[in-house]
Structure formats: structure tokens, C-alpha cells
Design brief:
The complex is a heterodimer of chains A (442) and B (510). Chain A is an alpha/beta fold and 442 residues long. Helices cover 66% and strands 6% of the residues of chain A. Chain A has a 4-stranded parallel beta sheet with strand order 3-2-4-5, sandwiched between helices. Chain A is elongated. The relative contact order of chain A is 0.13. With 510 residues, chain B is α/β, with parallel strands linked by helices. Chain B has 3 domains: 233 residues, P-loop containing nucleotide triphosphate hydrolases (Rossmann fold, 3-Layer(aba) Sandwich); 154 residues, P-loop containing nucleotide triphosphate hydrolases (Rossmann fold, 3-Layer(aba) Sandwich), CATH 3.40.50.300; 63 residues, no CATH class. Chain B contains 17 helices and 24 strands. In chain B, the strands form 6 sheets. Chain B has a 6-stranded mixed beta sheet with strand order 6-9-10-3-11-12, sandwiched between helices. Chain B has a 6-stranded mixed beta sheet with strand order 18-21-22-15-23-24, with helices on both faces. The two termini of chain B are 48 Å apart. The chains are: A alpha/beta (442), B alpha/beta (510). At the A-B interface, helix 14 and helix 15 of A face helix 10, helix 11 and strand 20 of B.
Chain lengths: 442, 510
């Protein structure tokens, strides 16, 4: 008989989500300020306004500065105005100097100007505001810019996607860490495996797949190789833990040193950047509804992991092994295989994290992933998973990762310096776990 | 800290006109959703052993924790020597002269007996622990107690009985006058129980008041002066030991007349099912062979350490065996892990259900499903509807009392926990069930239900291999008895109806 969920239990299970929502609300409030649309949205608005303000066949100049999204703006405005029958005399992106040249050319040709479609920034240039005195012969063109509005900087979709993209590596690696911690173990090697994976993938592409002119197949092969090697390292840790009963802390501490050392040896202590531009597809591309590819991958992996833990036999076994390994063994659970799976999965996901990082930064370096194991563990713990094993939730970890990301992003937006950020982050982790303990004590 | 006085106890008078050493009246204690105690009264005089009896869930543990200061009563008074006390912490209770020895001892495993005894109250000179003086005091105390305990071994290496003695010594060093003991004999051999009782009698003679909680009614008659019986959080009886019979005790505990302790059955024994020959592992199991037939309950008995549990663990694949062959229905089985044994159709109800039988922090449903998941899953996905319907079926069939299957199994009473373990194996439809101490720590009513269930199983043609330290249970339930001693079978009793406890004990000491 399915029972309605009691509020107390709901709060207990999803209390961290509430904290996350409150954090978002806080940062939204403190970053509430004047905003102007950019890119496509701005273009649509400006085109509509121009067409309304001036007659058909009017002569228009398009001006944009060199900020991100401005090129898109300019191209789109030019295209749409032309399509609607306006005459776009020139399209300028860059600095006021470029705009002045364009205006001089129009003046020299002796033409009149009906309207100037500009971005918010370009519309504010002295050149444009003082047009009537500098270029009296152009007539009195209407300057049309996107309307400004008030909106929290934090809540702008670019910023939110940026948060998700920034945390993708940590969140993906945290899936594997959650599996391991639920079995009652720990994996300290993930930070080093990120570096090893990034170096392996980048190194393979540079040395074996043709460097800057590497094919897609070669790049995919390099990434797969890196991920498989990291999975093998995880498997080795798992074997040491299951066959020789060495504590996971010790085994993975050793592999952390080994992995980091190997990454430095393979990269000869240097960054590897001889990689084709197309390699950034995974880390910086955005193919699906404007969502960054890494974020899509993150969401897919969390969905799979959630299904694994809540619906599948293996998920139950992972919890049972962490809850009471002996009782699980005597109930016929293949304890060693289950543990091995957890460490292999953690290694594979750390490898994937390394590949994503290499793609985001378009290079591989042995310095990547430094201290990441701690951020990953923090995400898992903030998400409510107990370090003593047997308990924890995948979606909790996702919440934990986003909580950390939101705090970091929010502090960046509000200009908190990075040293202070560390202090705050440390206190937040402690506070989250304290909250969890108080809830359990009730 | 001053050295202990010549008598073990700093006590003087046992005059009955004095106020009772400990008296509780109208103690009420509620937990969310449960009224654990509803007005309990209790008196304990100096120089007296008071047995507190009751089924699991009757409120004994809660009462004990209130006396020990671990819980605070919602209402009612607690007085020592007529002085009302309100303990807010175990420290306050200890300072008032109360020592509580829980079933799970409060010892630091890595510390020695001396270090444990003085933990928190170290004898110091100039900031340094006076180890020699501490050691001398403890040695002298153990001598007066008439026992030997190694003072230099870490406590985890001591036997259960010795750890218990360390706990008692700790109480004496702290000048306790009230000693509360929860099931002190549960893990002791009969010889150790004798020694413990001798010590308890000596402490009683010196004026200590001992509150003794036990499920073993035979022992209550040998050691207690008076009995207080609790049921559903209230008193139902308080009388001197000679004014009550064993059957009356049980009736008052369960609240209804009990026709018989062991239900009878009539099952025809079938052919051999499980055949074990030449089983060996180290010194614990030295060549054990036996057969269990269809429709039979075979009991393995003997003293603690005779190799009973070790034997069944080898059969079940829980430990690797040095030698031995295991056949089921004539087929030789290659058992290397519990998984193999389960696949062959065996189930093991472990001796210690908390450490080996259940994942206490996990829901009842998940514990129930654990050995069955492989059959209730398709392409790796658990068939949750099937899981749920099987669970509902067994909750009803075994009359497991629970409020919500998603509740942690650790929140259930001992009897209901054991039923969950039983349910998980019954759902697996095992042909051979190994029950290691199936009724340990379970109240009388639940015991009877488990016996009935065992009868049903053998009537359905299953085979049961049972280990039990309780001889009445062995005699009451088994079709055949094997007695073990130091890893060997020292006797077989086939005519159980005519057998006696003495006969078994003789074989067990052989």
C-alpha cells in the first residue's frame, strides 16, 4: 500500500535541495541588477523595434562591440533586417574606431542614415550619442538598442549553464565516489586519475593520432584509452582491497601517488596542447537545446546511476555490502565482485572526468585534478551520504555538487576573493554535515 | 583514590527496616509512538538479588536505562536510600552508586583490564598514571573476587566471561552498591555461569543489591531472591522466588496460560538429504560426519567452543574447509561460498542476527529480499511488485509485527527481527535449513511461534539442522541429537523422548 510521503521524511531526504534553493535565492537577491539582453535575444528585439520605427527600405547601420555574443547579434540583425526589406549599409563589430570609419564612408558616399541598430554597449558610445554634431550630414538617424531590464545576474541562463559546466567534472567523478562510499570505502585516487586520463588522452592524440590534424576517430580512441586505463587502476585498487583486505584508504592513497607520478612522467612535466580545435566539442560544445555537452552527459550519467541504485539488483547489493558485509555475504551476495565493481566504476568515471577537463581546457596537464578528490568527497558528503557506508543517494550527491558550485559561483559574482572563498566553502561543508547529524539525532 | 576497604564493598547494613536501597515508583517513559513504561514500581534491598522478567518489549531495557541514567523518566520517582534522585546522565547514576552491565560490554577493546577498570578515574601522581598502584589494586580485587583475569592482555583477547568480570571489577572499584546486569549469562558456558553465580552470592552477602535481567528461567530459580515481572510496560507480579512456579512465571509474562512449551509434531522421517563426511578445519572441527534426513530436525549440541557453529559454517561455505565432502540428495556439492550453498538449496540462520543475519540500518523489505533478489529480478532490475507481494505474504504468515516495511529492521524487537531472518530464507524455499541458536534472546511467546514454524517446515519435508545451547529446547524439538566436544562428535542420541539433560552434559564433557 503506497503511503503519502510524510513531510518530515521528505525534508530529511531532500533537505539539501532546500538548502540549495535558499542559496540560489540568496545569490539571486544580491546580484539583482540592470541587465541588457545580448546575442540572439537582443537581435530579435532590436530588429522588431527598427522595423516599427522606420519605413520599409530604410537605410540602417548595425553596430556592435566585441563582447561575447555581439558577433551573433550583428550577423542576426543584418540578416533579419535585410530579409525584412531594410537596406543595411554596413555592419560593424569591434571598437568605436571601426564604427567611425563606417560612418565616414557613408558620409563620403553622401547618403542619409535612418536608423542605427546597436547593442547596449555600442549604443552608449560617445560617437553614437553625439552623432548629430559629428556627422550632421547624415540626417538624424534613430538609435535603437535593446531595452534594459532588471534581473539577477546569478539567474541568467548563461550563468546557470556556466555553473553546470564548471561542476561537470566533479559531479561526474562524484558518481563513482558515491558508489565507493556507499560500500563503506573511499577512493582518494580520483584526483590523480583525472590528471592521468587528461595526459593520456592528450598525449595519444599528439603522438599517435596526428596531433593538430588528428581525426575524430583518433581523438575518440585516445579518450577511450585514457578512460579504460583509469578503470584498470580502479580495478587494481579493488583487487588489493578484496583479495588482501588492505583498507581502501591506504590502497587508494598509494594509487593517488602512483597515478599522479605516472601523469608527470608521461607528460614529462609539461602541458600537452598539440590538439585539434575540434577536441573541445565535449567540454565546450552545446548541441542539445543549447545545453553544454558535458552537462547533458552529466544528466544522463546521473539518471543511469539513480536507476542502478534504486531499481537494480546490483544497487541493492552495493547498499547491503556497505551496511553489513558479513550479513550480505551469508545471504549470497558476491561481496568481492560488488566491491570490485565500485572501484572500477570510480576509476572509469574519474577517467571520463579527466577527458572532459582536457576537452574544456584543450590540453592535458599532470596538474589537473589536484585536490579534486577532496571536492568530490565533499560533494558526496554534503549530499547526505554517510562515510560509514550503507546509506546515501545519487541525487543527494548531485545536489551536493551543485551546492558547492553555486557557492563558488555566487562568491565569484559578488567579488569575494578566492582565499575567503576557501574558508566559506570549508565552513559550508561542515555545516551541511552538521545539519545532517542534527536531523538524524532527532 | 583510596584503596578499597577490606570487604569488597563499602556497605554496612542490610536491615530491612531501612528504606530500600533502590526504589522506583510510578515510572513512566514514552518514546515517539510507543509508551515503553506505564507506571512501573520496583524495590531492591541491600543484600538481595532481584530478577526482573518479561518478554522482549515489556520494558526491561528501558527501565534499566532509566536506572543507569541513560534515559530520563517522564514521570515517577527514583530513590536511592530513600533519597529522591533525578539522573540526567550515566555519570550521575554512577556517582550515586549504580553500576549497569549491559549485554554489550562497555570496554575499550584495545586497553587492558587495569586500564579499562580505571578509565576516567585514573590513579595519578603528579599528572602521571600510577600504573603500579592501579595494577596492585586490581590484582587484589580479583583475588578477593576469587577469579583470575590476565591484567596485561588487551580486553578484546579476553573471553566473554573474563570481560564480564572486568565489568564487575569496574563496578566494585567505583564503589557501586547497586549492580544491574542485563542477561549476564547469555554468552557464558554452564561452568562459567556457576562461577558467576558464586560471585553474585558473595556480593549479595556483603550487602550489594543486584538487579538481574534474564530470559533463562531455570537460572532465576538458582540465584534470585525475589522476582518482578513486567508486561507491556507495567508490573504484573512482584513476589519472593519461592512463591511462584516456572509455569506461573511464563503465564504472567505472556499474559495467557501456556499449554505446553514445545508444540508436538508427527512427521515421518524420509531418506537422507544432507550428508556430511570427514569435515575438518584446524582445531575447531576435526573430522565430523553426519546425515540429516527429510522431515527431520537434527540438533547439534555441546558446550560453547565445541565446534558446533564452526561445523555449520563449513557446511554453508562461510569458511573454507580443510577437508570433507558434502552431498545433497546423493550429489556431491562443490561449496566454496555461501552463494554456492544457497544455490544448492541451503539457508543459514546465524547465531548472531545483529552482526551476521541482518543489515540493521536497512529497511525490513531490503533485508527480506537480499538472498532472493537473484530470482526476483529481470535483466538486473528488481521486480518490485513481486518483491512487495512476497513480503506481504510472509509478514502475514509469520505474523511479523511492524508498522512499515520501510522501517529499519533494527527498530524491531528481537523476536520480530528473527522472524524477518526466517522469512528471508523461507521465501528462498530452502530444502535444508541451518538454525544456529534460533531462539536466542527471544521472548517466550515468539519462541513458541518459531517452534511451530519449525514443525511446519519438517512436515513439508524440509530438513533442519539446529544448534542450541538450551538443553530443554534440544530435548523438546529435536528428532535426533549429536553431541560435540572439542571438534568431534562424542555421542548420538536417537531416542530423544527418553533422553535427559544429564545424559547430554555427560557426553558434552566427555
Amino acid at each position: 500500500m503506497p503511503e503519502p510521503m510524510k513531510p518530515a521524511r521528505w525534508l530529511a531526504d531532500y533537505g539539501m535541495i532546500l538548502v540549495l534553493v535558499l542559496l540560489c535565492a540568496f545569490f539571486s537577491a544580491v546580484t539583482y541588477s540592470e541587465q541588457s539582453p545580448t546575442g540572439e535575444a537582443a537581435a530579435g528585439q532590436v530588429v522588431e523595434a527598427v522595423l516599427k520605427a522606420v519605413p520599409k527600405g530604410a537605410r540602417v547601420l548595425v553596430v556592435a562591440s566585441d563582447q561575447p555574443g555581439d558577433a551573433v547579434f550583428a550577423a542576426r540583425v543584418e540578416r533579419d533586417l535585410t530579409a525584412a526589406g531594410a537596406r543595411v549599409l554596413a555592419t560593424v563589430t569591434g571598437e568605436p574606431r571601426n564604427a567611425r570609419e563606417a560612418l565616414q564612408k557613408i558620409q563620403a558616399a553622401g547618403g542619409l542614415l535612418d536608423a542605427i541598430a546597436a547593442t547596449r554597449v555600442a549604443g552608449g558610445w560617445r560617437l553614437i550619442t553625439d552623432l548629430a554634431s559629428d556627422f550632421p550630414s547624415l540626417g538624424s538617424p534613430r538609435v535603437i538598442t535593446p531595452a534594459s531590464y532588471r534581473w539577477p545576474h546569478f539567474l541568467k541562463s548563461e550563468n546557470l549553464l556556466n555553473i553546470a559546466n564548471q561542476i561537470a567534472v566533479i559531479a561526474i567523478v562524484a558518481i563513482g565516489m558515491t558508489l565507493v562510499i556507499i560500500t563503506g570505502g573511499i577512493d582518494l585516487s580520483v584526483g590523480s586519475l583525472i590528471a592521468l586520463s587528461a595526459v593520456l588522452a592528450a598525449g595519444f592524440i599528439r603522438d599517435r593520432a596526428g596531433g593538430m590534424s588528428a581525426s575524430t576517430g583518433g581523438m575518440v580512441l585516445g579518450c577511450l584509452l585514457a578512460i579504460v586505463v583509469c578503470g584498470a587502476v580502479g580495478g587494481f585498487s579493488g583487487l588489493m582491497i578484496t583479495r588482501f583486505a588492505i583498507p581502501p584508504f591506504i590502497v587508494t592513497l598509494a594509487m593517488m601517488l602512483v597515478g599522479s607520478g605516472l601523469a608527470y612522467i608521461l607528460a614529462q612535466g609539461q602541458s600537452i596542447y598539440q590538439i585539434p580545435d575540434s577536441f573541445v566539442w565535449l567540454g565546450r560544445g552545446a548541441d542539445l537545446f543549447g545545453l553544454p555537452n558535458a552537462v547533458v552527459l552529466l544528466l544522463v550519467l546521473y539518471a543511469l546511476a539513480q536507476v542502478l541504485m534504486s531499481r537494480m539488483k546490483l544497487g541493492r547489493y552495493l547498499y547491503a555490502v556497505g551496511g553489513n558485509a558479513e550479513a550480505a555475504r551469508l545471504s549470497g551476495v558476491p561481496v568481492r565482485r560488488v566491491l570490485l565493481f565500485a572501484y572500477v566504476a570510480s576509476g572509469l568515471l574519474a577517467g571520463l572526468g579527466g577527458v572532459i577537463m582536457a576537452s574544456q581546457l584543450k590540453s592535458g596537464s599532470p596538474t589537473y585534478g589536484n585536490m579534486y578528490e577532496l571536492y568530490v568527497i565533499a560533494a558526496v558528503v554534503v549530499g547526505g551520504t554517510s562515510l560509514s557506508g550503507g546509506e546515501g543517494r545519487m541525487l543527494g550527491t548531485l545536489t551536493g555538487a551543485f551546492t558547492i558550485a553555486v557557492i563558488q559561483n555566487g562568491m565569484n559574482l559578488t567579488n569575494v576573493e578566492s582565499y575567503t572563498q576557501k574558508v566559506v566553502l570549508g565552513l559550508v561543508i561542515l555545516g551541511a554535515v552538521l545539519l545532517d547529524k542534527l536531523r538524524q539525532a532527532r | 583514590m583510596s584503596p578499597p576497604s577490606p570487604s569488597v564493598l563499602p556497605l554496612s547494613s542490610t536491615n530491612p527496616t531501612n528504606p530500600p536501597l533502590l526504589s522506583l515508583s510510578g515510572i513512566v517513559k514514552s518514546f515517539p509512538g510507543v509508551r515503553a513504561l506505564r507506571g512501573v514500581n520496583l524495590r531492591l534491598h541491600a543484600g538481595e538479588v532481584l530478577a526482573v522478567l518479561g518478554e522482549n518489549g515489556a520494558g526491561k531495557s528501558t527501565l534499566m536505562k532509566i536506572i543507569g541514567g541513560a534515559h530520563t523518566a517522564d514521570a515517577g520517582t527514583l530513590a536511592i536510600d530513600g533519597q529522591e534522585q533525578r539522573f540526567q546522565s550515566p555519570q550521575e547514576s554512577r556517582a550515586a552508586g549504580v553500576a549497569v552491565i549491559y549485554q554489550e560490554f562497555n570496554l575499550v577493546p584495545a586497553l587492558t583490564a587495569v586500564e579499562n577498570i580505571f578509565l576516567g578515574q585514573e590513579v595519578t601522581t603528579g599528572g602521571f598514571v600510577a600504573r603500579r598502584r592501579e595494577r596492585e589494586q586490581v590484582a587484589a580485587l580479583f583475588q578477593r573476587m576469587g577469579v583470575e583475569v590476565d591484567l596485561d592482555e588487551p580486553c578484546r583477547r579476553l573471553s566473554t566471561a573474563q570481560q564480564q568480570l572486568v565489568e564487575i571489577a569496574k563496578a566494585l572499584i567505583h564503589k557501586a552498591r547497586i549492580l544491574v546486569m542485563d542477561e549476564p549469562t547469555a554468552a557464558l558456558t554452564s561452568h562459567e555461569v556457576e562461577k558467576l553465580f558464586a560471585l553474585m552470592r558473595e556480593l549479595r552477602r556483603q550487602g550489594m543489591g543486584i538487579l538481574y535481567i534474564s530470559h533463562r528461567l531455570e537460572e532465576v530459580f538458582t540465584i534470585a531472591d525475589r522476582v518482578t515481572i513486567l508486561r507491556d510496560g507495567g508490573n504484573v507480579s512482584d513476589c519472593p522466588i519461592h512463591a511462584i512456579t516456572r509455569d506461573q512465571m511464563i503465564e504472567r509474562m505472556v499474559g495467557r496460560p501456556l499449554d505446553q512449551e514445545f508444540p508436538s509434531r508427527r512427521v515421518k522421517r524420509g531418506g537422507p538429504r544432507l550428508e556430511v563426511s570427514g569435515l575438518r578445519r584446524g582445531k575447531a572441527v576435526q573430522g565430523i560426519s553426519f546425515q540429516v534426513h527429510r522431515g527431520e530436525i537434527l540438533a547439534l549440541t555441546g558446550l560453547v567452543g565445541a565446534g558446533r557453529t564452526e561445523t555449520v559454517r563449513l557446511v554453508f561455505g562461510a569458511d573454507p574447509r580443510d577437508a570433507g565432502e558434502i552431498r545433497l540428495d546423493g550429489q556431491v556439492l562443490d561449496i566454496r561460498s555461501p552463494r554456492d550453498a544457497i544455490d544448492a538449496g541451503m539457508g543459514l540462520l546465524t547465531e548472531d542476527r545483529k552482526l551476521q543475519g541482518l543489515v540493521l540500518r536497512h529497511p525490513i523489505r531490503e533485508n527480506f529480499s537480499l538472498p532472493n533478489l537473484r530470482r526476483w529480478c529481470r535483466r538486473g532490475f528488481v521486480q518490485r511488485r513481486r518483491e512487495r507481494s512476497e513480503l506481504d505474504r510472509y509478514i502475514a504468515a509469520l505474523r511479523i509485527r511492524l508498522s512499515d516495511p520501510e522501517e529499519r529492521v533494527g527498530n524491531l524487537s528481537g523476536g520480530n527481527q528473527q522472524k524477518v531472518v526466517l522469512a528471508k530464507w523461507l521465501a528462498r524455499d530452502c530444502e535444508v535449513l541451518i538454525f544456529d541458536e534460533p531462539t536466542r534472546g527471544i521472548d517466550v511467546g515468539a519462541k513458541y511461534e518459531i517452534y511451530l514454524l519449525m514443525n511446519e517446515l519438517v512436515a513439508a519435508g524440509k530438513s533442519i539442522l539446529m544448534i542450541s545451547s538450551e538443553l530443554p529446547e534440544v530435548l523438546g524439538m529435536a528428532d535426533r541429537i549429536l553431541v560435540l566436544h572439542e571438534g568431534r562428535i562424542t555421542g548420538e542420541i536417537t531416542d530423544v523422548a527418553q533422553a535427559t539433560q544429564e545424559q547430554i552434559l555427560q557426553l558434552a564433557h566427555a
